Amino acid sequence: MGIKIDKLSVKDLGPVKSFTASFDMLNLIYSRNEKGKTFLTEFIICSLFKNISRWCNLRKGGKGKITVSGLEKEMIDFSPSSRQKLEDYWEISEKGLPVSMAKLLVVKGGETGIETDDGISKFLVKELLSGINVLDKIGKDSNISRTIKKVKIEGGKIDIPLLGEGKDYNDALEELDSIERQFEEIESEYTQGILKTYKIEEKSLEDNLDRLDRAKRHKAYLISEKIKELDLGLKNIPDDELRKIENELSLHRSKKEYCSQLEEKYKNTLKKSSNFKWLESALPYYKDLSLRTTKKPGDFLLFISGIFAVAGIAAAAILFSYYQKTSVTAFILYLVIICFCFLGSFMSSFAYIKKFQNFSKQAGQSGELIKIKKEFKTRIGKDLSNIALLESALNEERGSNSESIVIKEQIGNLNEELLKLSSSINQKIEGFTGKEIKEKDRETILKELQLHNRNLRDRIDKETRESYKLAVPETDYISEDNGITYNQQEYEKTQSALESVREAIRIREDRIGKLKYRICEKTRDDPDISWEDLIENLRLKRFEIQGRLRDITANIAAGYSVYKVISRLREEEDLKIQEGLQSKTVLTPLKDITGRYNKLALDNDRLIVSDQYDDFDIRDLSTGAKEQVMLALRIGFTSKILKEDTLFLILDDAFQHSDWQKREILINKLADIANKGWQVIYLTMDDNIKELFDKAGKNFEAGKYNNFEL
Fold first, then answer.
1. For the chain, how many structural domains are there in total?
2. What is the CATH number of the domain that holds 573?
3. Between the CA of residue 657 and those of 105, 364, 623, 625, 681, what are the distances in Å?
4. More confident call, 133 vs 201
């Protein structure tokens, strides 16, 4: 008896407000695009199957149920909220149908591939075509762990990963080995003879080090006294006072140098203002002479007088020549002209004579001006052409004269300061030396004093470094001499030897203490337990670990043997799988539907289909060819599993990528398997596919073909 979907009822499922359908053998559900076809497919998947992760991005929602017959005597209703699904019934059925059957029965949204990568995995083929799932149950990790499956046993030795039983096995080995090593350590370490020898040597070295330490403390005392003595000598001539004297000497030199510069500058300003007195007296005299000086009259006035005289004579000659013919008016006009000309001539001559008289009077004053100009040329080196030039020269020398007066005053002040500063320097140096000094010797004496202090500081630094090397606090100084000369190398050598002996003692005691503590950790004893009782408890612990190791080894060996047997059986099942792929039940629908491919094979994890010319990975086929192959494999695999029984196929636009000729072949094949007892439910929005289904449905008895529209 086959398993069939008898009825589907849904409401509020996306765009599907309400839909009810009773199915028979060949069924078509047609809808326009976006009318809820895929929503309906996803509702069927969520209702019937437990593991829906095979179909990605399923939308949940809506209400309804699906009625299925053939699982039990009574029909069973399924919904998305049902606790039991088809896989649960297959697992408990006598036929032992694999749960992967769900992957063969449904195509959603044109996704023709049986698995998500558009191929078929080796695991799925094995589950569908062989009884290897029984071996898988025996050999699953809960029965035989992955760690035991990786065991290698060679020459009586077990090589196993450090996980699970492998970790327990290696832990037991390591613990047993640790106990054996501890017994060896007890033999080598648990003795007091070496420790006593170390203790005696430690006491001898401590006494010698104490004597050297007292000598060192006495030496530190002597060095500290020497440093105090040197410090006292350094305080008698303070460095601060020497620095002050040095600064004063530097100041004295700079002021003396500045005074010399001022004296030189004073000489220059005196030179620049050497003509100041002469210029100052010459300027007012030159101004007075320049204002009273009259220039010698030119010939222009004589020329004008002559012109007027000639013009008057000419006018008189004309008048006498034409006297009788001349009218009274013309006669008067000529007389006026003659009078005007002679008057102009007279006035011009008079003006010339007056100016010439003035010029003659000033002839002596012009000689004085010439003398001033000549002296100016000699002193200044320029021609004196006007009063402004004389004033400019006077102003220049007036500035130099004023500057010389200021500089002279500055020189006087500086000399007083230099005298006081020199006196102060001499007093300070004489205070340190106790004798009078000369100015020329001051620099030398100061350097000698500074050198003396520097030598004292160097000696103090040297003694201080020596004191630092000794590293003795002042409170530990000893003034008494114990008769031993301190030697740093001998002290360090003795100290190093003492540290080495103490380290050896510490290591020996630490080893014994740690050994006892480690043994107590294993035996769970208190660290205060006696060594005799502890060793006995450690022997008992060794017997316990040896027994546990034998049990773990036996368990690993048994699991390893079972796994080897299962592995051999798996190889035999692989042959069965190859036979199943070549069986007529699987290959016949492949040949009928594709009209091309005639062979199937597994190549590692790839399922290969072949025609008479070449081999192809299913994942490399075109979309249309893949639709045909996947439909053929669904029919072939399920027929191989069910033999005479039948199931249902739910196909959501599984042929949308096939060409129209192949579509008719595929739909006719679906009609053929529906006639043989398979239930086919096909959902589409393609008008051509609808027409082909209607055409094929005409060959069915009334009620065997159903056509629904969403």
1. 1
2. 3.40.50.300
3. 19, 141, 6, 9, 18
4. 201
